[in-house]
Design the sequence.
């Protein structure tokens, strides 16, 4: 989907994408407009990405991303994924409570937490 669609999904609280053999990214790249923080899925609380063998990243952007209400993130069996946000920065928020079922995680950058720590459950491509 496009970034504008994700910004317009005002009431979406849970997003689960699974078993899609050809998905390479969740949010499609669009022309970069301005700088600053981009808010996606303003009401999203739970994000789960499971069994997506071609998924390389969630979003390719130069912007910093913010998910203001996100509490839980789970990424499982996405072997090609080695960055959540490619080129940009995932801005963690105070509401983030769990990453891959680890309740002790308080992340500043989801890229680092998901792919450079003990909570990584995703087989990484080398």
Sequence:
């Amino acid at each position: 989907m496009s970034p504008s669609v994700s910004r317009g999904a005002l009431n979406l609280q849970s997003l689960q994408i699974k078993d899609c053999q050809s998905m390479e990214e969740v949010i499609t790249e669009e022309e970069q407009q301005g700088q600053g923080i981009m808010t996606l899925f303003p009401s999203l609380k739970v994000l789960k990405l499971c069994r997506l063998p071609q998924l390389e990243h969630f979003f390719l952007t130069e912007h910093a991303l913010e998910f203001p209400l996100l509490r839980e993130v789970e990424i499982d069996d996405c072997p090609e994924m080695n960055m959540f946000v490619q080129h940009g920065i995932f801005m963690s928020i105070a509401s983030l409570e769990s990453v891959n079922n680890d309740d002790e995680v308080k992340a500043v950058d989801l890229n680092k937490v998901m792919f450079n720590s003990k909570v990584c459950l995703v087989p990484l491509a080398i």
Notes: The chain has two helices and ten strands. The radius of gyration is 13 Å.
